[in-house]
Amino acid sequence: MKGFLGFWTLLIKSIALPLTIGSGLSVGKEGPSVHYAVCTGNVISRFFQKYKRSASKTREILSACAAAGVAVAFGSPIGGVLFSLEEMSSKFPLKTMWRSYFCALVATATLAAMNPFRTGQLVMFQVHYDRDWHFFEIVFYIIIGIFGGLYGAFVIKWNLRAQAFRKRFLTSYAVAEATFLAAATALICYPNHFLRIDMTESMEILFRECEGMDYNNLCDPDYRWRNVLSLVMATVLRLFLVIISYGCKVPAGIFVPSMAIGASFGRTLGIIVQALFEAYPTSSFFSSCAPDVPCITPGTYAFLGAAAALSGIMHLTVSVVVIMFELTGALTYILPTMIVVGVTKIVSSNFGKGGIADRMIWFNGFPFLDNKEEHSFGIPVSQIMSERVSVIPATGMGLNELEHLLKDHDYRGFPVVQDRSSNLLIGYIGRTELKYAIDRARKERALSQNTRCFFTISTNPSSPTLSPITDQPPPILASSSSSNSIDFSRFIDGTPITVHPRMALETVMQIFKKLGPRVILVEQRGRLCGLVTPKDLLKYQFKVENREHPRDDTGEAEMQDKVWAWIVGAGDWIWVRVKELKIVNVFFGRRGSIGGDRGRGGGRGGEGRGYEYSELNDGVELEGEVDDDGDLGSPRQERVR
Length: 641
Fold this sequence. Notes:
Layout: H1 7-23, H2 30-45, H3 49-52, H4 55-74, H5 77-88, H6 94-114, H7 138-169, H8 174-189, H9 193-196, H10 199-207, H11 224-245, H12 255-279, H13 298-314, H14 318-328, H15 334-349, H16 356-363, E1 392-393, E2 397-398, H17 399-408, E3 413-417, E4 425-430, H18 431-444, E5 452-454, E6 485-487, E7 498-499, H19 505-515, E8 520-524, E9 527-532, H20 534-548, H21 554-579, H22 582-588, H23 594-600, E10 612-617, E11 620-625, E12 637-640
Parallel strand pairs: 1-3, 5-6, 7-8
Antiparallel strand pairs: 2-5, 3-4, 8-9, 10-11, 11-12
InterPro entries: CBS_dom, CBS_dom_sf, Cl-channel_core, ClC
Family: Belongs to the chloride channel (TC 2.A.49) family.
Protein name: Chloride channel protein
């Protein structure tokens, strides 16, 4: 977890998240809030030996912290527990549920005591509905659910393409990209009344019933179609901004942006349904509406649209229903929420497995096996195992050989065999344990490069290989041992997880999911045949999926090249026009074009190109070409005023 859940990650993200939200980017704070809640739990647990020495207990802490993060983000303690159960944890025993609930309860109570909005609400967009819904509205609820599923599939597909483009071209321009996105978002969003304000404030307005404060004449029938057009534009523009913004090098969440998009679409549909009712009040379709009472509440459509979009992008069901219920406190709208989320789940499942978080894990190549998926490969593990394995003989290796083995290979560990000819398996030693053993041995005694290192495990019960855990670990070298030999046997795992070569691949995958080992050794009659890792399983899984659904990425790569060439050309054109201003020339000096700088820097912008320009210098106007160094070449013409 180093680098993902450490102290520096917590510190940097805690500072960067408020700056990101303040910049106005179309990203949310709820996802990063869950992340640094988990970081906090991981950092604090390191101070206690009980959790530091046990990975399973650490996972319980992380599950509880994730529940607390969601509870604080949405003011939903029960929804936070269910989110941790549905999305975060592959194993969720009863004691973990109780601890997650207690942690979420304390976090929510602390937030309520702080009263951050000075309104008594835990989140800004918390609302209450006192009107009932009608059965004819189920038709429109299904439309909202279909929109949620299509929204999730569309955003996931195009956001992954944007990530591929970003990974290929924009890796070296992270700061410039974030700055450009913030400026572009401000320019695009300001003309629209619903994009100009903060997303949480926008949802608060869209969720609200028409009684009370009316923002931008949202409830005025005279401005109805103008608001519909404005909401449609807000939906489309926000969707585009979410696709290009989520994944840039800033702390970014997608919960609230998706809910804001769903809310604007839902409010649009609610206004249209309200207009239909007012146009045809005597229609049999609206016969269940009571007279002299508002029949349609557009705010509830916005609320259900937010639930549909959140479910579509994350592929969540139960936790979304509970979170939305805790936001409104309306028991009457549990059934409509379940209908919307159910339709969203059905639609989104037809476009692929997993939400955007799962797709990001697959895109970045992390060796994560999703516990929610089931596979049927029908082959033994021997067909995908790695047969060429770097092993350590128990009979001994030179210290310099061990150090070269660690330097030349980045494996997480090495099988220990009796000798390389017989390949009889004795155990397994991890890379971290081996490096630690070598470092400790060097501290205890001066060792030569020819020192022999032995890994033979003692079978004598009277002399155990593992010493009891104490504050001061026992020395590796005994006082009577020679400096030309050293025993590393007590660092070996003598009972690694092993499987037979004919074991079904599905069973091996279940072992990885349930027990969580980093490697499984394949042995037959005590002889090492190979090993398998989660990456081997994922490679074969993607190979099978690509065989069933082949893809040709040639056209996508060509499109990326065209887009990048257009961006570079536009940047060069802007830079040349800006340099024509005298004040910019004085401030920046004479520099080459953007394309030239990238070309010399090894980027993908192509070779540097010269541009003709005119420069006023002490009353002399020079016309020439800019060479690759950014200097003015030999003038073709000189005119003195």
